[in-house]
Amino acid sequence: ILIVDDQREFVLLVNKGLRARGYEVMAAYDPVQGYRMAIDKQPDLVLLDIQMPAGGGGGMFDNMQGNVLTAAIPMIFVTALLRLS
What we know:
single chain; alpha/beta; four-stranded parallel sheet; 3 helices; 4 strands
């Protein structure tokens, strides 16, 4: 599973939960890095944040859908508002 989110705390939380359930997890912290990883690693699923810089999740979604190498990879949009105190 590839997690693409610019909030490192959220990535760490989701990563920990998925690994505890036996999933292999990769992380990218912006959509450009995430798109490259999706092409190179061909994950079974992408968890994609909607609100990110550099085109955001919507831009990455469009790029993946338009590329024969990534169009069949399932994607789930996620978003989180974290308050750390």
